[in-house]
Recover the amino acids of this structure.
C-alpha cells in the first residue's frame, strides 16, 4: 500500500532525524554478548513499556540466556519443560533487598514480574543449580545487546552528551561507564574493567 506523505511531515521527519543519531560501538575485554545502555537523557523520563518481554525455561536452560529490557517492563517467565522449575534472583546489582523468589511451577504455566529497579538481575533456579540467566534492566529505551564480537548499535538517541554503560556476565555485577557525545552519528568503545 502506498501512502502520500505531506511535504510538511517530510520536513518535520527530517528535522527530528537531524536532532538524533545512532551510536555505533564495540565492547571489548570480554567474550560473547554484552549489554550497553544510555544511563539517562537529562530532562526526560520514560513511561513503562506496555509490551511484555519473555524469559522461558526450556531444555533446562534460561532462554534467552541474556535479556535486556527497559525499566518498568513486565517479564513473563514461562516453563516449557516437563519438570518443575523455580525462578529466583538473590539481588539486583548486588542489592540483596531487591532479591526475589518467584516460586516453582510446572510446564505450560507462567508467572510475571515488573522490573522497576535498574541493574543486573542474575536468574537462578533452585531445582537445577546449573541453570543461570541474566536480565539487564536499562534506565532508558536506549539499550542494545551486542553480537558475539561485542559490536552494537543504538538508534534514534537524541543529540547530547551521556554516560554509556556496558556490562558482561564475566564481570559479575560490575559495569563500566564511558562518555559519549551524540551529534548525528557517534562511535563509542567500552573497554570493560578487568
Ligand atoms: Cu530449573
Amino acid at each position: 500500500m502506498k501512502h502520500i506523505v505531506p511535504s510538511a511531515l517530510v520536513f518535520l521527519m527530517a528535522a527530528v532525524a537531524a536532532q538524533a543519531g545512532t551510536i555505533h560501538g564495540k565492547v571489548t575485554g570480554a567474550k560473547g554478548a554484552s549489554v550497553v545502555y544510555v544511563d539517562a537523557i537529562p530532562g526526560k523520563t520514560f513511561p513503562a513499556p506496555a509490551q511484555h518481554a519473555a524469559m522461558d525455561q526450556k531444555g533446562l536452560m534460561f532462554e534467552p540466556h541474556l535479556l535486556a529490557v527497559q525499566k518498568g517492563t513486565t517479564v513473563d517467565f514461562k516453563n516449557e519443560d516437563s519438570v518443575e522449575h523455580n525462578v529466583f534472583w538473590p539481588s539486583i546489582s548486588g542489592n540483596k533487598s531487591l532479591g526475589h523468589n518467584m516460586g516453582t511451577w510446572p510446564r505450560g504455566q507462567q508467572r510475571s514480574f515488573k522490573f522497576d529497579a535498574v541493574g543486573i538481575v542474575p536468574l537462578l533456579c533452585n531445582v537445577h543449580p546449573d541453570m543461570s540467566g541474566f536480565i539487564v534492566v536499562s534506565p532508558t529505551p536506549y539499550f542494545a545487546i551486542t553480537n558475539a564480537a561485542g559490536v552494537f548499535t543504538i538508534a534514534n538517541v537524541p543529540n547530547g552528551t551521556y554516560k554509556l554503560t556496558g556490562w558482561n556476565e564475566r564481570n559479575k555485577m560490575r559495569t563500566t561507564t564511558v562518555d559519549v557525545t551524540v551529534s548525528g552519528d557517534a562511535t563509542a568503545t567500552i573497554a570493560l574493567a578487568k
About this structure: The longest strand covers residues 20-28. Residues 7-18 form the longest helix (12 residues). Helices lie at 7-18.
